[in-house]
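Supplementary notes (optional reading)

For those who missed the lab, this is the record we used. Protein: Biotin/lipoyl-binding protein. Length: 356 residues.
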Amino acid sequence: KKKYRKYETEYAGVNAKVLIHKIPGGMISNMVAQLMEANALDKMEEALEEVPRVEADLGYPPLLTPSSQIVGVQAVLNVITGERYKTITKEVRDYVEGKYGKPPGPLSKELVEKILGPGKEPDFSVRPGDLADQEEWDKARKELEKLLGRDPTDEEILLFILFPMQAKEFLTLREKGELHPEPVEELPEVTETPAGKVVGAAPVEFDILYHGDRFRVKVEGVSFETESGKPRKYYVRVDGRLEEIQLFPRREAIPSGGASVGGAPAPVEEGIPKASEPGDVTPPMPGKVVKILVSEGQPVEQGQTVAIVEAMKMENEIHAPIEGIVKKVFAKPGDQVNPDEAILRIEPYKEDKSYQ
């Protein structure tokens, strides 16, 4: 159990609230993982309340794979962004357009209008399978032939079409014989010492008084040393709930209270910068860049889709926050991005519509 304790949450065990929200256990575990990835597990109750509303908007699809994932991810996005359907996944758009077939019940008129446009209705008379593009199959086959150096199987082609980024990484590793299960290492134990016996020793269990509220905190474990400039993970239990904290060292001190070691700030890693301008395009939650749809120097309109980011197994369209010119593209397909990082930067027009 110690090997998996970092995955423990109050939602991982028996929970009588399932009688109220009636959400399957597998769907709950996915939502927990998604919210933890976005560092927003505190919004779990809101997400559970949002699920029935999204389910109703989509005509009450059965909460089984894949529709349970479609509903769950959209509910999580609605809660994280703070606005319902501010970000709509590609899968929800496909569902509303009829690419998953006819839903059991009527769709929300507001959602249909938001996705298809005013006065338009989805066409459920067409069999979704008939919309498959043979050219896409042939293109995927050629790309896999180049990647693998052999003729791909039909299963590999289908996997690549459905999940291009994951399939490329998976098939490459498998072809090289480097595909191994991720090791689950037990967290290093924290060595405890009697209180007051060692001068300068850090406490492993203590109470924190914060804005008048008292919290009981216990350090459960520390990750192994990571690369220079990378965060180190600490696992602490706050009032019984296990939390993961990422620590970015800036200064280190000798435990006895002596002079600081390495007093200079940790070097800032080059790469994708933090968002700092009104025109910075950011993802709603952590994910991997799938496509960049614009190039530097290209004019864009406010609300235009400029990138696709895969998060929580779903593709999310990322829109331009302002109108202007793409000044700089920081990320590329395959890059991992966080909500506080700029995928690209848009420079606003001047009043005369010229470029600044």
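If you only remember one thing from this example: Residues 67-81 form the longest helix (15 residues).
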